[in-house]
Amino acid sequence: xxxxxxxxxxxxxxxxxxxxxxxxxxxxxxxxxxxxxxxxxxxxxxxxxxxxxxxxxxxxxxxxxxxxxxxxxxxxxxxxxxxxxxxxxxxxxxxxxxxxxxxxxxxxxxxxxxxxxxxxxxxxxxxxxxxxxxxxxxxxxxxxxxxxxxxxxxxxxxxxxxxxxxxxxxxxxxxxxxxxxxxxxxxxxxxxxxxxxxxxxxxxxxxxxxxxxxxxx
Length: 217
Known about the structure:
By secondary structure, this protein is mainly β. The chain contains one helix and twelve strands. The protein has one domain.
């Protein structure tokens, strides 16, 4: 299996994370096994099922209908726009587990686990204008990069911001250190905004994790 990505320099890869068109992901293959951009520590236990919890933990599951993603590239004079379409079927599930003492709320500090099953992908809408033509079609978009770790430690600040310290894997896409994660009631909201080339390439990704039992783990 091989991955086909937008044609961006490797240093710029972070902004194009969700535009990954991944045959490996579509075939339910852990990309860390065949992705040369993944570190060795990206081969870990995030796909393990069952995956034992570490003591008491609360679980948050990705909510596909909250995914919002826009990617715009105007560098070459053409316009390429990718937009996540929540009306399309979503394949896969991803979960976060956090330490809890009272089983009601997560602790302010503790261990967390990242669990994933399937490609966590869907078809995105692509709009291209250039060379005297306009093309509207679809491509496969993946929410996660495929090199993530399986957990580590976290800190919940007074302003409800959650920060992660990963024990392994590679902090790309929504787990990039510049991403924002905020806990509100029974939902955890994740967002990442990036731009480059004088703002001629930019992307915005956001979605929610909701408190629910993580299926299959």
